[in-house]
Design a protein that fits this description.
heterodimer, A: mainly alpha, 3% strand, B: alpha+beta, Trna Endonuclease, Chain: A, domain 1, 5-stranded mixed β-sheet, 7 strands, elongated
Chain lengths: 73, 175
């Protein structure tokens, strides 16, 4: 744990809830897997469409249209 | 050829439309109206304005900060990726209290309210100045406890003060 100039709000909140568990976890996440899932869920909200998936989808759609001879080449 | 170009342009337009509507998801998450509130800051997703809060030797960034267009009310939104099932964890409650206190300092307003958003509902949190001051008072204890790898006072905050006086409707998880 690095001690910066300011203490993170989330860490202070965790200590206030349970000082012993917080110190035991070294000031880090109690459950690393849950923390990863939480971060991913936060990234999804308000992110809009995934650019890479959208491009791949467009290419797949055009390829399918060409393959089924719907789109003339 | 024109069909292909049209298809690509339609795809790009659809992408931009969905991208433009992305902030709407953040309003929906906290059940706020885009007509009544503006998004001041959010670290949810990408590409939104961001504002980090600081003061009292503390720092942090709420998931979302909204400002009432007519009322000027500041709403702090925190998203928790779990079902609350009627129960709030104390650390979630404390986190929102700290953000509300920092917001009052940063924005110079007392008209603040917090919202905890879970996957199965929302919990509104009123600011409690006594809880905020008690939390700020723990800062030195936290740093010392981490340095010495031993809690300097094993009692959680709710065993030291009444944390629910201004939020009596909230049911907390655990004893």
């Amino acid at each position: 744990m690095k001690f910066g100039r300011s203490l993170a709000v989330s860490k202070l909140a965790a200590y206030a809830e349970d000082p012993v568990a917080f110190v035991k976890a070294g000031g880090g996440a109690y459950n690393a897997k849950a923390a990863r899932l939480g971060t991913a869920a936060h990234a999804r909200v308000g992110a809009g469409p995934n650019k890479a998936l959208f491009i791949i989808g467009m290419i797949a759609l055009i390829a399918a249209l060409i393959y089924f001879k719907i789109l003339p080449v | 050829m024109y069909f292909l170009i049209g298809l690509i342009l339609t795809g790009v337009a659809l992408y931009l439309l969905l991208k433009g509507r992305a902030p709407g998801q953040i309003f929906s998450l906290f059940n706020l109206s885009e007509g009544k509130y503006e998004l001041v800051s959010s670290d949810l997703g990408k590409g939104h304005p961001r504002r980090r809060l600081g003061g009292f030797g503390l720092g942090g960034e709420p998931d979302a900060i909204f400002k009432g267009k007519r009322t000027g009310q500041i709403v702090v939104g925190e998203y928790k990726n779990r079902k609350h099932k009627g129960l709030v964890r104390r650390r979630e409650f404390f986190q929102v209290q700290l953000y509300l206190g920092l917001i009052r300092e940063s924005f110079g307003t007392q008209n603040v309210v917090g919202i905890l958003a879970f996957n199965d509902g929302l919990v509104q949190i009123a600011y409690d100045h006594e809880v905020f001051l008690a939390l700020v008072g723990l800062r030195g204890e936290v740093l010392t406890s981490l340095q010495k790898k031993k809690a300097q006072d094993k009692r959680p905050l709710h065993r030291r003060i009444n944390i629910a006086s201004r939020n009596q409707r909230i049911r907390f998880d655990g004893r």
